[in-house]
Amino acid sequence: MEPGNGAQTELRADLVTRDTIDVNDGIERVMGNRDLYARMLRRFRNDYQDGALPVRTALAAGDTLLAHRLVHTLKGAAGMIGAHRLHERAGELEQALRLDTGEFRAMLASLITEMEKVLQLLGVLLDGSPPPGMPVQLPTRALLGDTALLERLTQLLTNHDGGAIDVLEESRASLHVILGEATLQRVSDAVREFDYARALRALGETACGQGI
Questions:
Q1: Exposure of 100 by Cβ count < 10 A (0-12 exposed, 13-18 middle, 19+ buried)?
Q2: Does residue 13 sit in the same domain as residue 89?
Q3: What is the pTM of this model?
Q4: What's the CATH number where 56 sits?
Q5: 111 with 160, same domain?
Q6: pLDDT score, position 72
Q7: Number of structural domains found in the chain
Q8: Does residue 116 sit in the same domain as residue 42?
Q9: Using an 8 Å Cβ cutoff, are 45 and 119 in contact?
Q10: Distance CA 54, CA 67 (A)
Q11: Which of 127, 159, 192 is the last residue before a domain boundary?
């Protein structure tokens, strides 16, 4: 466990949270590469922003082969990020569709419910804003460690790489925790004006002040 990640430990230990997405298991699956895992979570949310709608649409059209393929893909993606219950629900529906028994409505409903929970929790992990009434402990540090995230951003700025804009957008919630709103705004404004030197100065002042 990395220093300063106490709240993240609580998040991983919270039974409600861990049953929905087991962050610890997900990170272990990628050999401890927290940056890669964070990108996997963002990719999952982007790919499944419509939830189970594509599966429901396929079934409504009577296309069980397409529905089976979609559910099989979802099962694999859920397993990779540590969404174990969603993985199980997808597996149950996949089997029902493969056997073509026609008894899949209850399984589909269960999958939809679990998918909604996963997408809600991804909002917590990636954006830092919990949905109303969701009793979870928010992580107060980035999934990617402070030093690694700042080093990545610093390297992009040093190289005058426009990818710095992507990092600022994708990791805004994490950088808000690390840098504070005022500094993050200064860095963001400078990058948007392509003034990488000014952005580096603002970033360097914060890093030095925190001993990072």
A1: exposed
A2: yes
A3: 0.56
A4: 1.20.120
A5: no
A6: 93
A7: 2
A8: yes
A9: yes
A10: 8
A11: 127
pLDDT tens sequence across 93-148: 999 999 887 778 889 999 999 999 999 888 877 776 544 444 434 344 444 455 67
Of 127, 154, 182, which closes a domain? 127
Q: Is the pLDDT of residue 9 over 60?
A: no
In which residue are the tokens 């409903």 written?
A: 109
Contact 46, 77 (CB under 8 A): no
Dihedral-angle region of residue 33 (phi above 0 means left; psi in -120 to 50 means alpha; beta otherwise): beta
Q: Are 175 and 102 members of one domain?
A: no
* CA 133 to centroid of chain Cα atoms: 20
- Find where tokens 């996949």 sit: 94
**Residue 92 contacts by C-beta under 8 Å, 6 or more apart in sequence?**
107, 110, 111
Residues written for the chain: 212
